[in-house]
Amino acid sequence: MRLWIELSGEHPTLPRAEALAAFEAEHVELREASWSSKVLRLDAVGAVARAAGRLGLAHVVCEELAHGDLEDLRRFARSLDLAGRTFRTRARSLAPDLDRSAVEGPLGADLGRTGRVDLVSPSIDFRVLVGEEYVLGRVLHRVDRHSMEARTVTYRSFRLPISLHPKLARALVNLSRVPTGGILADPFCGTGGIILEAARLGLRPLASDVRRKMVVGTRRSLRDLAAESAYLVADAGRGPWKAGRLDGFAADPPYGRASSSRGEPVLELYDRAFRSFADALSPGRFVAIVLPSEEAVKVGQDRLELVECHTMRVHRSLARNFCVYLR
């Protein structure tokens, strides 16, 4: 299947990396891939819909139906028989000067020969991407950004100002490449944001933290939101992980507050955690983790292979590095 993903554009590389990792997690074979800052185009074989449904840093995933100039798309539209089904046609340009009506109107007229327009809840949602060429597609999945906003820590029963936004937590889960049904551990579960997204994606999450307050709070939030996990009070460097039992780790550990690391220098905490990760994972499994500095990134490299790192600037003195390590 040929498809394209309209990326969120919130970071130069992280949205694309998340999408590719989600497809890898679901064992989708990618025969071809090309991209710009806004769009990722793929030729994919496998569980495409399941992989598409995992995404957080995207807007729309479409199956590609036709490409060329506008007349090529119109010829294809006239060849379709919608058999009276409802449809909607929307266009998006990669440049700011698109006259949408000049695209949507003619295509709508062609499709309307055998179908009926429904702008609210159509059975077929067509989308046109206008760049160097025109591309017509059928929407497979729309990322529910409103739902993710409703899951921010502000609206959860256990609230502390130290949680990743759900879209970033979901991206981190996807970067871990844990498949649907796999076991993902977060040994710094905090307020439970990563665990919540893992549960919603159909993974089997394992939440742990050295602070009992965090584990209890995470459990309360997940129960309120009808999500399930296993829970442990455990030190990340001495977790009760058994080799080969986990499919991956995703974590956003403390990054400099003495209270959250119990006075232990954070680099020492990271070193102990990475040693535990290396012992717990089988070869070929991944750790996706947010780290605050180049020094912290290097600590991970002492134990595991760094395969990608995406730096997100928070403010002048703080950057967050979304890193992926391979065992």
Number of strands: 15
In angstroms, what separates the terminal alpha carbons? 31 Å
| Secondary-structure element series | EHEEHEHEHEEEHHEHEHEEHEHEE
Question: Which regions contain 5 or more consecutive residues with pLDDT less than 50?
Answer: none
Give an overview of the whole structure.
By secondary structure, the protein is of the alpha/beta class. The chain is 30% helix and 31% strand. The chain contains ten helices and 15 strands. The strands form two sheets. An eight-stranded mixed sheet has the order 2-3-1-4-8-7-5-6. β14 and β15 form a beta hairpin. The radius of gyration is 22 Å and the shape is elongated. The mean pLDDT is 94.
